[in-house]
Design a protein that fits this description.
OB fold (Dihydrolipoamide Acetyltransferase, E2P), six-stranded mixed β-sheet, Immunoglobulin-like, single chain, 374 residues, mainly beta, disordered N terminus
Length: 374
């Protein structure tokens, strides 16, 4: 068990207490299998960035303990696995994890049910974000059956900060930041060079996207921003209304050029999941546009008092034809044109969770200037 205590400054802790092997190990990576595929069974936050601690002289290292163990069968019975190999795919230069991973290490370790509980010390000499990308292979169940390799997963360590420096593609593959961070030893996230697409149009925050218009995210913040501002955001990850959100602790801005919208069809707005912890639309396929500024042309159609933009390409996730126009987040509401109008709408591609629990795509115009009647 690892307990981390927050005291002062940016660093999240000054001591790590490693309990004896007979104690609980709620922070260990528990290896097992699910549906005949090897997997990390717990903890839920196993891919959350972990804060490393400074040793001070003479070692002058940043360190963090990480334990692994085998999950047991339901009811606390035998281990699920007889053996498994934890295999490195890539590791940030400067990080070592025990004698197994990182600089000058073999890049794998094989564990058996004879002694599955092992602790490794992750170490780095310089501040930064360090990422081990790995998977489980050669897994054998207790029954002797072969188990398929796991999906790749991340083990992330942060030295000298309470925030892991990530990009949006990696962010989509990270779970929500656990409550109590960073005092509990888990780091938040830092994302740089995002371009604001919505300014102050929405209450409670703004959307920002990558310079290459490949991904976007909602930033929950009261910081005044303008369209085109380039921002550096530090905060906690959350999932709200079917979208990933950064609940900002700080936002730094510098002026820039407003982003251009991507032309899209209605069909393309209903996309599959963009990452392990990032939900897709119900029945969605293809690459996600959630968080991006987009532009769609079509006809406005009303259904049960709600306006949809229909370009003839699709009916999305059991909705009426078209994509729903969402005005709920606007700081200053406005009226939409009459049903039957042929329009071009610019807005942010987003998600909502309906009363039936299904995630459905929406288009969020920023103001009346985003709608052109043809």
């Amino acid at each position: 068990m690892v307990r981390v205590y927050r005291v002062t400054g940016l660093l999240a802790a000054v001591a790590v207490l490693i309990a004896s092997a007979v104690s609980a190990h709620e922070n260990d990576l528990m290896f097992g299998y699910d549906a005949a595929q090897a997997a990390v069974m717990s903890p839920a936050a196993y891919e959350c960035p972990r804060i490393m601690l400074p040793t001070g002289p003479p070692l002058n290292l940043w360190i963090r303990d990480i334990g692994v163990d085998f999950a047991r069968q339901p009811g606390g019975g035998a281990y699920l696995l007889e053996s498994v190999t934890w295999q490195q795919v890539s590791c940030t230069a400067g990080l070592t994890i025990g004698g197994a991973f990182g600089d000058g290490r073999p890049g794998f370790v094989t564990l058996t049910s004879t002694a599955p509980h092992v602790h490794f010390q992750a170490a780095a000499r310089n501040p930064g974000t360090y990422i081990l990308r790995s998977y489980l292979k050669n897994a054998v169940a207790k029954s002797g059956a072969q188990v398929a390799p796991s999906a790749e997963f991340y083990t992330i360590f942060v030295a000298g900060s309470d925030y892991a420096l990530v990009d949006l593609p990696l962010l989509r593959n990270l779970p929500d930041t656990p409550a109590g961070s960073p005092a509990n030893g888990f780091a938040g996230v830092e994302v740089r060079n995002l371009v604001v697409s919505t300014g102050q149009a929405f209450a409670g925050g703004f959307y920002a996207q990558t310079l290459g218009r490949s991904a976007g995210v909602f930033i929950q913040s009261n910081t005044p921003v303008a369209e085109g501002d380039v921002v550096r955001v530090r905060g906690k990850l959350a999932t709200v209304g079917g979208e990933r959100v950064i609940v900002a602790d700080s936002v730094e801005t510098e002026p820039g050029a407003p982003p251009r919208p991507l032309g899209m069809t209605v069909r393309s707005l209903a996309a599959a999941s963009a990452g392990r912890y990032t939900p897709g639309a119900d029945g969605g396929v293809g690459v996600s546009s959630v968080g991006l500024l987009v532009r769609v042309a079509g006809t406005l159609r009303e259904h049960d008092g709600v306006l949809y933009l229909d370009d003839g390409s699709a009916s999305l996730g059991g909705q009426p034809a078209g994509v729903r126009l969402s005005l709920e987040r606007l700081a200053t509401p406005f009226s939409l044109p009459e049903p039957g109008s042929v329009v071009i709408v610019t807005g942010v591609s987003g998600h909502v969770v309906d009363g039936d629990g299904k995630i459905r795509p929406v288009l969020r115009p920023r103001g009346p200037g985003d709608i052109t009647v043809l």
